[in-house]
């Protein structure tokens, strides 16, 4: 973790969750009501179909609700898409942009991801910009080059520590049970920190950089203890309130230094 940066524990439900799973959101909303919530921010990104009801369930909870994608335009003839304004209208506070599954399934480019992040900022949402290398890129020792390119192309000039979060998700670690070594995570996060500082100055120094990819209750504490890892973006393990809350609780011993 980075001293003075409030960590973020974020869950991404992807294309999972119906009304039957609302009890999990209720349990998370209740479970994060502990003194730790003053030091650790929590966020859940359910599918768009549950967004409005989820924000209502979290009305009196520190658990924030966000979406998993937005269109780069405010409104118009874009069948099947939702805008950042629509997310804000449902009381969502964050939106994930550029997840590797969007980049893969919908051929999203770095430049489109940047336009989506700008749309999020226009709507006063926090953009969680996902970056990360594929297995082929890793095997070709291109990880840091990919991260440099994605930060340069996908992070808007107007990004601040308040309106933007970076999520490093190695594509090969998502849903596989595989994670980079702690030392690989440390090197990647230190590199991203330096790139963000070079690009955004003090805002880059204070920006949260999350790790995502096969984070579970069993490894979250160890990963978040690594320098420049300011929280986690969790897929599969965020579907169950017990697992999400266990990951949240694993911040407890780490946040002592945070103001
Ligand atoms: O893609 C992810 C979060 O956005 C990570 O997914 P898993 O935690 O299931 O590996």
From TrEMBL:
Family statement drawn from the similarity comment of this UniProt entry: Belongs to the triosephosphate isomerase family.
Subunit structure, interactors included: Homodimer.
Protein name (Swiss-Prot/TrEMBL): Triosephosphate isomerase
Protein source organism: Neorhizobium huautlense
The keyword ATP-binding is annotated on this UniProt entry: no
Residues annotated as catalytic: 99, 169
Keyword Isomerase: yes
Keywords: Cytoplasm, Gluconeogenesis, Glycolysis, Isomerase
